[in-house]
Amino acid sequence: MRALIAAAVGLAAALALVMTITAIGAPAGSTSPKPLMTTVPRHP
Asked: Which InterPro entries match (predicted)?
């Protein structure tokens, strides 16, 4: 029974966190127009 209560409390806390982040919204800003380098450039 304690495990069920602990799971319910954890789920409620996680749901509250997700709802809070959703309500706040994404941070303001923009993405870079330059592509990201995924590998180290090879020097000749």
From this structure: SPW_0924-like (IPR048001)
Nearest CA to 12 out of 4, 23, 2 is that of 4
DSSP notation for 1-44 = -HHHHHHHHHHHHHHHHHHHHHHH-PPS----SSPPP-SPPPP-
Residues 6+ apart with CB under 8 A from 42: none
Cα 35 to Cα 39: distance, rounded to the nearest angstrom: 12
